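hey can u run this one w/ adenosine-5'-diphosphate-glucose bound, need the structure tokens asap thx
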Amino acid sequence: MAAKRVLAIVLAGGEGKRLMPLTADRAKPAVPFGGIYRLIDFALSNIVNSRYLHVVVLTQYKSHSLDRHIAKTWDMSRMLGNYVVPVPAQQRMGKNWYLGSADAIYQSLNLLDDERPDIVVVVGADNIYRMDFSQMVDAHVASGAKLTVAGIRQPRELADQFGVIEADPADPRRIKAFREKPSDAVGLADSPEEVLVSMGNYVFDADALVEAVRADALRDDTRHDMGGDIVPAFVERGEAALYDFIENDMPGSNDRDRDYWRDVGTIDAYFEANMDLINIEPVFNLYNDEWPVYTGYTGLPPAKFVHSSPERVGLAVDSIISPGVVVSGAEVHASVLSPHTKLNSWSRVDNSVLLDNVTIARRAHVNRAILDKFVTIEEGASVGLNRELDIARGFTVTPSGITVVPKGTIV
Ligand code: ADQ
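ok here u go:
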């Protein structure tokens, strides 16, 4: 069989309203994660590790920091014709920005004309996982379907956040029904408290994708959404196959992180996914060299831990500490610290995620909090110790009690 030409499209235009205030002035795929990464690095690393090296990233909402990150980190040398490029909304089809994710592809069809792929791999930019897309593409080609949707089991109570897949009992690789974010999903026959959901990753025959987004653009009764409109249309015509994520065989994965996939749609989910990285036996293992996660490396100095006085040791336990961090006579427990963060004497950070350039002054205390970039906690101040106080200060406090301090705030 001749090798198929594959183009990868990353949908990166999402607003991420439920991640506010972290998305107040950056696109959701550009939200920092795990100390040195941005959310989009996980999708792009999966694509590049799958050896798909013709990649376009469709951006629009507050895309400045996302564009900058992609240009700095992912702009491969164009030798041999490989590329990862951001493509902003170009208004080629009229005066509209992208009306939805399907319209984003419609407005970018010139890219398919240029590339002439046989297969288009379309993936979201907001999820944390490892996946070899070439295995999904092989399954797609073998099945003869026009669309293949990647699926994973999730708790039934989350069904209204996802596209829910009903596989054909007679042929479990065929999708019989698909409903986007239903409020009344029924559990699986063999596990009533679980449903099978779409991971937002699709493999299309290129011709079928072009035809589908063109037809969708002409309709009035559509939100121009991949999950809401395009996938159901393929399912109704009996042209959609299921690729169960459980089949994906990942080099270097342990039993714990083999099936790991998280949609970090809410602050609580974002916080928990960060915490997943720091477990002693991490449920998502960043130290898997066989399937690396790439990001921009900044040339910062190494992290440093110093005594401020003989009785004040600077230490971090069960934590991720990025380059450029200085922990001076302070304690860090169960936390993720991004580059250029400085902790001063007698301060303490517990169960928290600190983004770049945070300063924690002497005797300050942070617990169960997310501090966005350039936040300063002043001497003796605290965050996350008193819910009412944090709410009165105007901070977001999530249902599970995580306080989020917006970019640049001085507490
Ligand atoms: P959601 O994540 O809710 O559900 P959406 O908000 O469309 O769907 O985001 C999907 C991806 O598309 C994200 O990476 C987002 O950044 C991007 N995107 C959104 N609008 C865009 C636009 N106008 N232009 C470019 N990119 C855009 C989807 C599926 C569900 C599935 C979940 C899994 O619709 O069926 O279960 O993903 O997370």
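The longest strand covers residues 194-205. anyway lmk if its weird
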